[in-house]
Amino acid sequence: MLVLVVEDDAETRDAVVALLEELGITDVETANDGEKALEALRHRKFRTLLLDLMLPRVDGYEVLRALRNGTHERPDRVIVMSAHALPTELNGLIALGADAFMPKPFTLADLEKALS
């Protein structure tokens, strides 16, 4: 399963990759801003996108819009992760193309559930 983790905080990004590895998922690429995420999405087909909303340059909302508008190939599963978005925003995120929302911080069990 090829996964793209988009997170600007290096410590959080490394933690997410470590959690994925605990689940046996080792085919992981990372990006630290939305611009790099869109570039990665142009060149590879990802099965899952783990996307932070608050990113430099291009934020997570713009990445979702690009996927919804078909300018980039949409991964099979798009999971938004954010410490700032509220669960009440889920409907708006789903309208933009997200499949799941995980408030940060999250656990291994939360990640496993979101991936299924």
Write up this protein.
The protein is an alpha/beta fold and 116 residues long. The chain has a single domain, classed as 3-Layer(aba) Sandwich (Rossmann fold), CATH 3.40.50. It has helices at 10-22, 34-43, 60-68, 90-96, 108-115; strands at 3-6, 28-31, 48-52, 77-82, 100-103. α2 runs parallel beside α3.
- CATH level 3 topology: Rossmann fold
Reported for the largest beta sheet, the result is: 5 strands, parallel
Name the CATH superfamily assignment: Response regulator
N- and C-termini, Cα separation = 12 Å
Measured by DSSP, the beta-strand proportion falls in: 15-25%
Number of domains: 1
CATH architecture: 3-Layer(aba) Sandwich
At the first level of CATH, the class is Alpha Beta
Report the strand count: 5
Describe the global form: globular
Helix content: 40-55%
Physical arrangement of strands within the biggest beta sheet: 2-1-3-4-5
